Amino acid sequence: MATKKFMFVNRKAPYGTAYALESLEVVLISAAFEQDVSLAFIDDGVYQITKGQDTTGIGQKNFSNTYKALGDYEVNKLYVEKESLEERGLTQDDLMDLVWEDEDEDWTEKPSIIMVSRSEMADVMAEQEVTLSF
Amino acid sequence: MKFTIMVNEGPYQHQSADSALQFARAVLAQGHEIFRIFFYHDGVNNGTRLSVPPADDRLIQKEWSELAKEHDLDLVICIAAAQRRGIMDEDEAKRQGLDANNIIEGFRISGLGQLIEGGIEADRTVVFGD
Question: Which domain of life is it from (chain A) (predicted)?
């Protein structure tokens, strides 16, 4: 099957709606289909990858660890929009340390998070062939 | 041109379902092809046959069903999203030990791989959601 550039655009907070959880399910399937997968985190979507998520008070499953597993599925391009972080009083230090291991460099750990400006994000989106927005 | 359409919101609650339906009609009217329409999130509710809106309102699920019949469309409901929200076909209801099914004619239930395949096979993938 052909390989295309797939981008999953995450715009919503991790809890409150099902979008983030169900988006992750699609991401994992697309990786199984060996597509060239990127993720974008914009607007409240940046909260999906913040550190220290605790769902005990809302009675829902905390699925934030799934983002840490993405590197194992060769999903290692996680574009995070700087302006969205800034608008919410967040910095990259508030985000989880998401990494992948580079097979070609003796499994060296490399960061998966790529910080981009709003206009750079637009450029990355323009390069995609299939963009699914959640 | 070949299209895949993704519908992420339920009928009546959100404009997306109507917009997707109208977009699908426009695509076909202009002579394009629809490879697949994939229903995800609350969009799976577009596939129930048990909706009964007031008599003067549109029946969105029936409109999908009729459009599918007329143009031989492939309308696919995501199985994981459907299970959460209680959209069942006969086989799935039986498999889950449930006493009823509610899928409307013209839809089928399958996996998320169908969405990815749709993205690969189509020239354009268009998402209708919130």
Answer: Bacteria
Residues with Cβ within 8 Å of residue B40, at least 6 apart in sequence: A22, A26, B6, B7, B8, B78, B81, B112, B115
CATH of the domain at A128: 3.40.1260.10
Instruction: Using the CB atoms, write b or e for B83-96: b if 16+ within 10 Å.
Output: eebebbbeebbeee
pTM, whole model, 2 decimals? 0.96
Contact, A9 vs B129, CB < 8 A? no
* Interatomic CA distance for residues B28 and B23, integer angstroms: 9
The answer, for B14 touching chain A at a CB cutoff of 8 Å, is no
Count of domains observed in chain B:
1
Q: Which of B51, B122, B118, B50 is nearest to B78 (CA)?
A: B118
User: Which residue is it, tokens 């399937």?
Assistant: A29
Can you give the CATH number for the domain in which B13 is found? 3.40.1260.10
Could you give the ipTM of this predicted complex? 0.94
* Residue B20 belongs to domain spanning: 2-128
The pLDDT value recorded for residue A1 is 75
Domain that holds residue A14: 5-133
User: B112 to chain A nearest CA, in Å?
Assistant: 6
Query: Per the CB < 8 Å rule, is B40 touching A130?
Result: no
- The pair phi, psi for residue A108, each rounded to 5°, is -65, 135
Element (H, E) at B75: strand B75-78
